[in-house]
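Appendix B. One record, verbatim.
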Amino acid sequence: MKRILYFTFSIFSILTVFTSCWWQSEGNSTKITGNYYLHWVDDKADQSILRSSGDGKSGFIQVPETVYAVGYNDSYIIAKQHPNLEKEIEERLFNNFQGEDYLLTNPSDTIYLSKDDKVYEKNGKWYHTINGWNPPDSLKPYRGKTLYHIIDINNEGQESYVLDNEEEFLNKREELGIPKDLDFTIIDKELE
């Protein structure tokens, strides 16, 4: 009886994973221009710019989540993006396993750990046990920072720039000769 239940549960689990992956591959795509699409799957906060040779359902992520404003002409795509700090912090917290526990590379990340986690010092380095974490919604998208992107679509995105602030963005636009009338025409107010 236990084997039958285990087998049934295993088949059910495999089918659940398979069907969820199958549905996820579809996503939502809106064509920007040429081979470029605004794309997201389950969560609109995952909206990115995708370079696709097909129908915008798969391809190369040119600008990662969360893209909230886009403008374009025949030569360039410009975009505004809020970074995903949740992914960055998760990598720092859980990608450095040291035998028994995880090395803490940034002690300020401990505010995101479970209250049951143990943080300790050993040989001059800080470590933590893992009992999970509860990242706040404010980390994805992190609206405290805006990154600006310029993609040269004549070179299939091979020439692209990520700029840390509006001043750098405006200077790079001028340097590249991008017309001043190219503005952000697709703006998602929910993600802004």
